[in-house]
Amino acid sequence: MKTLTFGRTQQIAQRPGEDYRDLHERLRDYATASIVSVRELTQIITPSWYSYDASRVLPDTPNAVAVCTSTCKHEMPYKIFVGKRHEGWQRAHPTIKDTWLYTLDDLGRDLTPLERNAIYDSM
User: Fold this and answer.
1) How do 80-84 and 75-76 pair as beta strands?
2) DSSP 56-73
3) Which range of residues forms the domain containing residue 61?
């Protein structure tokens, strides 16, 4: 199993006077490039609780889930991992306070640019 660990290094990237829609579009290329398919059993350790039921935009992939290593898709830098969840896929870390353990299975394929954009817009 691959294990990836992330810390609290993110900062909101919103500029003074910038509204949410403009921020969302400005960050689109960065965000969609940060979305990756899990291709092997992977454990993610992160302080972020932010996940999304990706099967909503990937109806051919039941139990698909997106896990963001930041608590907001507009806090940079981060990665969004998309894989398949199973029972017990999300739990509190047993020894590190305010930290989560996510275990994701192989998504079974790579995501298309259209799917990455749909996930970004839906999260």
Assistant:
1) unpaired
2) GT-TTSTTEEEEESSSST
3) 2-122
Name the nearest CA neighbour of 46 among 108, 104, 112, 93: 93
In the chain, where do the E strands start and end?
2-5, 11-12, 35-37, 42-46, 51-52, 64-68, 75-76, 80-84, 90-92, 100-104
CA distance 23 to 96: 32
CA distance 23 to 109: 30
Q: Could you give the number of structural domains in the chain?
A: 1
pLDDT tens-place values along the chain, 123 residues long: 999 999 887 777 788 999 989 999 999 999 999 999 999 999 999 999 999 999 999 999 999 999 999 988 888 888 999 999 999 999 999 999 999 999 999 999 999 999 999 999 999
Kind of pairing between the strands at 75-76 and 11-12: antiparallel
